[in-house]
């Protein structure tokens, strides 16, 4: 295979997955380790990727380009929120990642090492399982399917979660409103997320700007019960004022 073809395959893989280790790239191209290392070095010099210990991640410049190309696309907003959330994960953390699309996007950007990830999302498991230096714990329970999201719920999942220490939880919602609080369309997810708000040291709510001013089927908590929210820069001004008054930590994507 010619160098140009190999590099094109590496680019496509990183644009889709955002990060990779050398073993995975050797299998995806396919090519020898020495050849892949040479191609990766070339892409690093071009600014396409950043080399990390044991692998590489897509460069911030390339990520911003992806965001720009998808600026009017809802998936682009979820990707932005997911990227910002992944940046909060530090080496050694014990975290929970929920089943929403923004959480799924978050899992693609995680580069921290020696972390423990607890999740009930099949999508997140499939994303993180190939990554090195991540201890992955999957909650058992009843399998649910919603809009191409596969996750577990029910009493078994809840009982398991009660016995696990979580430093940081990352969950998604379908609605954020001052009068009705944080809401979600799925009753099973609401039960899990309500528990996480009680048991986690910190709970981060991932909600892009389109979720504000909306109500969904099931309330998770009151508006003043969340201390940390991750969103996009276009969220409404009235909520900016409300969060400031309540001293809510707001992390925006850009």
From TrEMBL:
Pfam (any one): DeoRC
InterPro entries attached to this UniProt entry: Carb_Metab_HTH_regulators, DeoR-like_C, DeoR_HTH, NagB/RpiA_transferase-like, Tscrpt_reg_HTH_DeoR_CS, WH_DNA-bd_sf
TM stretches of this protein: none
Keywords, sorted A to Z: DNA-binding, Transcription, Transcription regulation
Annotated signal peptide: none
GO molecular function, one term: DNA-binding transcription factor activity
Residue stretches making up the HTH deoR-type domain: 3-58
Name of the protein: DeoR/GlpR transcriptional regulator
Organism this protein belongs to: Eubacterium maltosivorans
Lineage: Bacteria, Bacillati, Bacillota, Clostridia, Eubacteriales
